[in-house]
C-alpha cells in the first residue's frame, strides 16, 4: 500500500503563533483517513497547510512522491487535490451551475458525472439555476463537496462537513463519501462526530496541540473505548 | 455545456432595486427645482453623458479594488495618459478632425481611442508588475506606491508635453446639438452616452456569460477559494488590471474631448472623483459603480445649476449621504 500524501515535521506559523508543531503522518492511497481532535487542535490549519493556503515554515509535504510544500495553492489544486473548507466557501452570488462550471477546471461539465452526484445530492439538480447564497446550510455543504468531486481528484481534503447539519443530510454525505471512495479517491476528512468518523474511516489520526498524538486503524480505535476517551475526551462525545 | 432544466427554483428574495431607481428619482425631483423644462433636459442629458464617462473611467478601479483589495490611487494616471496619447493621433491629423465628414472624423477618432486604450493598458501591465505586485495585502504601501506613481506620471507628462494646456477641439460632425423644439441635445453627449452604455453592457455580458467573468465574480467574493479550485488569481487580476487601465485611457480621451483640452493635472483631479464613485457604488460592484457615476454627475450638474457655491463639496456630501444610508456602498459585493 502506497502513501499518497506524506507530511514530515511540518510546522506552520500564523502571524506570531506557532500552530503546527511538527506534524508527521501519511495518508494511504485509496483509503479514507479521519483526522480527529478537539477544537483548536490544528486540524483546519493542517488542511490549509497542505493546500498551500498557509505555507509551512518548516518540514516537507509530499503528494504522490512530489514535494509540494513550496508550491502555490492553484498548482497544488492542479495536481489533483480537491478542498472542501470548513466555511464551505460556496460562491453565493453565482448559481449552483456556475459554481460547478468553475470547479470543472479541465473542461465542460461531464453530464454522466453530474448524474452520479445528483444521485446522492438531488437538491443540486433541483436548485441548479438558483443562486448558491439562497441554499440551506446542508445544500451549501453538498455544493461545496460537489465542487471538489465534479472532476476526478486524487486527494480530497474535507473539513468538518457534518457540522451543524441535520441527521438526514449527514446520511447523504456519508453515502457520498463511500461512493467517492469506491471510485478510487483518497480522502482526508476532519470530523468531530465520532459515530460518523467510525462509519466512514479506514484509518484515523488524532491531533492535539498542533501534533499528531495517535495514528492507527479506525476499527481498532472504535473497539477500544478507554483509548477513545483518553484521546478524544469529552469534546467529541458532546457532538454525538 | 450541460444545461439542465432546474426542476425547481428557490424563492428569490426581492431584488434590491432601490439604488437602480435612485438616479431617476433624483432627476424627477429636480424638475420642479430647475423650473424650466428645457434646462432640465439639458442638465439631465449632461448628467447622463458625464456619468457614463466617469463610469468608464471608474469601472476598472472597482474591479481591481473588489477582486484583490488593491487600493490604486494612481488610477487617474491611466486617464491622463490616455488623453495625451489621443493627442498624438488627433493633432497631427487635425485636417481629418476638422473635415466636415462624419466618416473622416470617425476614421481619426477610432484609432485615437484604440491607441489611448492600448497605451494605458500596456502601462497597466508595467504598473501592476512593478508597483503593485510587491505590495499585495499591504494597504499603506499600496497607497504610497500608487500615489508616487501618479506623481511620477504627471511629471513625466509635463516633461514630455510641457506644462501648457493642450486644446483638443471636437471633430466637426460631433459639434453642435440636435434641436428638438426648444430642447438642445449636444451631439457629443449622445455619443458619450452610447459608448458608456456599450461598455457597461459589455462588462456585464462578460461577467455574466463567460468563465473569466464567473472567475472575477467568484474572486471578488472569495479569492482564496478560487485559488483552491486551481486558478491563478493573480494572472486573472493582471488581466483585469490591464483592461481597467485601458478603459481608463478610453475615459481619458472621452473626457478630454468633452472638455476640449488636455492637461497633466486631469489624472489627479479625476482620481478623487472615481474613488468617490467606487465607494458610493460598493467595492467590486459594476452596477453600483454605474449608478454611483450617474449620481455624482447629476449632483455636479443639477447642483452646479441650482447652488453653484456647493459645487466643490457636492460630491463629498453625496458620498456621506449614501454611506450613512448604506455604509458599504449601494451594492456590497465583497465581505469587506
Ligand atoms: N487566522 C488565525 N490567526 C491566529 N490564530 C489562528 C488562526 N486560525 C486558527 N488559529 C489558531 O490555531 C489553532 C488551531 O486552529 P484550527 O486549525 O482552526 O483548529 P481546529 O480546526 O482543529 O479546530 C487554534 O488555537 C486557533 O486559535
Ligand atoms: Mg477547524
In short:
Helices cover 38% and strands 27% of the residues of chain A. By secondary structure, chain A is α/β, with parallel strands linked by helices. Chain A folds into 2 domains: 3-80 and 154-239, Rossmann fold; 88-152, no CATH class.
Helix content percent band of chain B: over 70%
Write down the domain tally of chain A: 2
Radius of gyration of chain B: 20 Å
- What share of the residues of chain A lie within helices? 25-40%
Instruction: Give the overall pLDDT of chain B as a whole number.
Output: 90
Q: What share of residues are in beta strands of chain B?
A: under 5%
* Strand order within the widest beta sheet of chain A: 6-7-8-3-9-10
Rg of chain A, Å, rounded? 17 Å
| CATH class category of the largest domain in chain A | Alpha Beta
Strands of chain B, total number? 4
Which hetero compounds are present in the coordinates?
adenosine-5'-diphosphate, magnesium ion
CATH architecture of the largest domain in chain A: 3-Layer(aba) Sandwich
What does the largest sheet of chain B look like?
2 strands, antiparallel
- List the total number of helices of chain A: 10
- What series of H and E elements makes up the topology of chain B? HHHHHHEEEHHHHEHHH
- Residue windows where pLDDT falls under 50 for at least 5 positions of chain A: 235-240
Strand content of chain A: 25-35%
Distance between the termini of chain A: 32 Å
Number of extended strands of chain A: 10
Amino acid at each position: 500500500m502506497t502513501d499518497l500524501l506524506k507530511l514530515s515535521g511540518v510546522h506552520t506559523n500564523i502571524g506570531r503563533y506557532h500552530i503546527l508543531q511538527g506534524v508527521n503522518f501519511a495518508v494511504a492511497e485509496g483509503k479514507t483517513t479521519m483526522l480527529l481532535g478537539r477544537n483548536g487542535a490544528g486540524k483546519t490549519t493542517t488542511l490549509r497547510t497542505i493546500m498551500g493556503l498557509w505555507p509551512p515554515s518548516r518540514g516537507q509535504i509530499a503528494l504522490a512522491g512530489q514535494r509540494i510544500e513550496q508550491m502555490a495553492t492553484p498548482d497544488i489544486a492542479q495536481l489533483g487535490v480537491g478542498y472542501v473548507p470548513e466555511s464551505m466557501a460556496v460562491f453565493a452570488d453565482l448559481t449552483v451551475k456556475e459554481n460547478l462550471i468553475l470547479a470543472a477546471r479541465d473542461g465542460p461539465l461531464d453530464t454522466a458525472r453530474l448524474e452520479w452526484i445528483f444521485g446522492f445530492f438531488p437538491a443540486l439538480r433541483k436548485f441548479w439555476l438558483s443562486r448558491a447564497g439562497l441554499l440551506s446550510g446542508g445544500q451549501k455543504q453538498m455544493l461545496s463537496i460537489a465542487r471538489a468531486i465534479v472532476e476526478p481528484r486524487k486527494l480530497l481534503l474535507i473539513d468538518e462537513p457534518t457540522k451543524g447539519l441535520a441527521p438526514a443530510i449527514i446520511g447523504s454525505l456519508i453515502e457520498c463519501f463511500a461512493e467517492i471512495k469506491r471510485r478510487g479517491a483518497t480522502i482526508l476528512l476532519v470530523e468531530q462526530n465520532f459515530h460518523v468518523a467510525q462509519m466512514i474511516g479506514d484509518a484515523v489520526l488524532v491531533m492535539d496541540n498542533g501534533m499528531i498524538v495517535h495514528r492507527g486503524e479506525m476499527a481498532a480505535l472504535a473497539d477500544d473505548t478507554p483509548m477513545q476517551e483518553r484521546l478524544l475526551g469529552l469534546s467529541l462525545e458532546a457532538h454525538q | 455545456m450541460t444545461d439542465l432544466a432546474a426542476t425547481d427554483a428557490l424563492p428569490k428574495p426581492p431584488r434590491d432595486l432601490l439604488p437602480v431607481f435612485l438616479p431617476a428619482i433624483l432627476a424627477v425631483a429636480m424638475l420642479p427645482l430647475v423650473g424650466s423644462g428645457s434646462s432640465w433636459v439639458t442638465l439631465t442629458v449632461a448628467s447622463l453623458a458625464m456619468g457614463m464617462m466617469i463610469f468608464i473611467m471608474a469601472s476598472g478601479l472597482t474591479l481591481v479594488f473588489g477582486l484583490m483589495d488593491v487600493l490604486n490611487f494612481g488610477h487617474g494616471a491611466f486617464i491622463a495618459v490616455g488623453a495625451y496619447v489621443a493627442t498624438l493621433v488627433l493633432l497631427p491629423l487635425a485636417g481629418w478632425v476638422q473635415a466636415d465628414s462624419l466618416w473622416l472624423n470617425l476614421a481619426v477618432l477610432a484609432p485615437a481611442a484604440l491607441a489611448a486604450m492600448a497605451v494605458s493598458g500596456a502601462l497597466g501591465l508595467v504598473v501592476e508588475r512593478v508597483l503593485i505586485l510587491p505590495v499585495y495585502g499591504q494597504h499603506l504601501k499600496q497607497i504610497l506606491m500608487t500615489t508616487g506613481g501618479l506623481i511620477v506620471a504627471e511629471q513625466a507628462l509635463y516633461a514630455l508635453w510641457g506644462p501648457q494646456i493642450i486644446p483638443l477641439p471636437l471633430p466637426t460632425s460631433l459639434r453642435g446639438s440636435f434641436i428638438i423644439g426648444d430642447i438642445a441635445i449636444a451631439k457629443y453627449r449622445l455619443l458619450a452616452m452610447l459608448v458608456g452604455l456599450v461598455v457597461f453592457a459589455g462588462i456585464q455580458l462578460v461577467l455574466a456569460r463567460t468563465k473569466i467573468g464567473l472567475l472575477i465574480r467568484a474572486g471578488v467574493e472569495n479569492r482564496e477559494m478560487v485559488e483552491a479550485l486551481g486558478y491563478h488569481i493573480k494572472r486573472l487580476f493582471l488581466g483585469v488590471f490591464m483592461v481597467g487601465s485601458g478603459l481608463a485611457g478610453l475615459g481619458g480621451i472621452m473626457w478630454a474631448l468633452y472638455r476640449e483640452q488636455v492637461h497633466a493635472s486631469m489624472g489627479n483631479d479625476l482620481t478623487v472623483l472615481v474613488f468617490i464613485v467606487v465607494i458610493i457604488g460598493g467595492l467590486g460592484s459594476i452596477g453600483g459603480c454605474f449608478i454611483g457615476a450617474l449620481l455624482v454627475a447629476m449632483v455636479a450638474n443639477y447642483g452646479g445649476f441650482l447652488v453653484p457655491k456647493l459645487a466643490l463639496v457636492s460630491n463629498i456630501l453625496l458620498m456621506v449621504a449614501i454611506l450613512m444610508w448604506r455604509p458599504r456602498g449601494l451594492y456590497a459585493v465583497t465581505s469587506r
